[in-house]
Amino acid sequence: MRERKKGNRPGPLVTKRKEKVINVVEMVCPSWRNRRETDTRKTEKYGTVRRELMERNQGFRVQQTNVVVDVLG
């Protein structure tokens, strides 16, 4: 069995080829009190992933969308 690499892995990548946009989607389920800190931390965490995507896909814009879901949904 192959061992998987560990590292930063965002959620789904949504690619819009006509608009030349790649959207990195990240799900976050923090407690209500620290939702802003969690959002900032996730944005910083995937900065290198976004840069790598821009390097691999010349001419594409890379955006990140953090979907924040609280306990009540």
Can you count the helices?
Answer: 2
- Quick one: biggest sheet? 3 strands, mixed
How many strand elements?
Answer: 3
% residues in beta strands:
25-35%
* N-end to C-end Cα span: 37 Å
Which oligomeric state applies?
single chain
Shape field: elongated
**In angstroms, what is the radius of gyration?**
14 Å
Mean pLDDT, as a whole number? 81
Structure description:
The structure is a single chain. The protein is α+β, with helices and mostly antiparallel strands. 29% of the residues lie in helices and 27% in strands. It has a three-stranded mixed beta sheet, covered by helices on one side. β1 (13-16) and β2 (21-28) form a beta hairpin. The mean pLDDT is 81.
Attribute tags:
73 residues, alpha+beta, three-stranded mixed β-sheet, 27% strand, elongated
